[in-house]
Automatic annotation (TrEMBL):
Keywords, alphabetical: DNA-binding, Transcription, Transcription regulation
InterPro entries recorded: Homeodomain-like_sf (IPR009057), HTH_TetR (IPR001647), Tet_transcr_reg_TetR-rel_C_sf (IPR036271), TetR_C (IPR011075)
Organism classification: Bacteria, Bacillati, Actinomycetota, Actinomycetes, Streptosporangiales
Parts of the chain that traverse the membrane: none
Residue intervals of the HTH tetR-type domain: 9-69
SUPFAM superfamilies per UniProt: Homeodomain-like, Tetracyclin repressor-like, C-terminal domain
GO molecular function: DNA binding
Protein name as it appears in the record: TetR/AcrR family transcriptional regulator
Species annotation: Nonomuraea cypriaca
Length: 201
């Protein structure tokens, strides 16, 4: 597809956001291209102009949008893990995000409709996890510089473990509707980081 004009880019984004909102409200299984066309006031030719691959390409774009929102919903706390108070605020923001989301995860529902072994679907998840882990690792490194976390701790490994705790807690929440396990996982993860805190000079 040729590069879009500014107007074309805006129209594509409007269709994408409209599709994401409809899926959030009605679920991906009950969302058709006709629903999206009606919601966004676009024709079939317009829809296929911006998403030549049809429903699957549109769903993949929605998945990317929802993946971006996962990180956006944690800001500015995620990008400013520079004190223990900041880490606690981030912890609370993560719990609040998933509590508000409830048992319906837009990203998970969209991904379940895509062929999970396709390069596109794998790339969405991989990019999200890489970006999320990098943000957490940056916070660990900052705390190491401030002598608040043991400098011998591997920041990337610590971030990967904490991210795995979050994902495990969220998975249980999707089944139970409760954030109890997510909160416990985050609290234990942060307690582990604090346990390696260096003595004050």
């Amino acid at each position: 597809m040729r590069p879009l004009t500014r107007k074309g880019t805006a129209t594509r984004q409007r269709v994408l956001e409209g599709a994401a909102m409809h899926i959030r409200e009605h679920g991906v299984a009950d969302t058709t291209l006709d629903d999206i066309m009606a919601r966004t006031s676009t024709s079939k030719s317009q829809l296929f102009h911006y998403f030549p691959g049809g429903r699957e390409e549109l769903l993949l774009a929605v998945a990317r949008l929802e993946a971006d929102r996962v990180l956006e919903d944690q800001q500015p706390q995620l990008g400013d893990l520079t004190s223990w108070d900041a880490w606690q605020q981030w912890r609370d923001r993560v719990v609040e995000r998933y509590r508000n989301q409830g048992r319906q995860c837009p990203l998970n529902s969209v991904m379940s409709q895509l062929r999970g072994n396709t390069p596109g679907a794998q790339a969405v998840v991989t990019e999200l996890m890489n970006r999320w882990q990098a943000e957490i690792a940056a916070g660990v490194r900052h705390m190491q510089t401030a002598d608040e976390i043991d400098p011998g701790l591997d920041p990337d490994q610590a971030a990967a473990a904490l991210l795995a705790c979050i994902q495990g807690g969220v998975l249980i929440q999707l089944s139970t509707g409760r954030t109890t396990h997510l909160e416990a996982a985050l609290d234990m993860g942060l307690a582990y980081l604090r346990a390696d805190r260096l003595p004050a000079n």
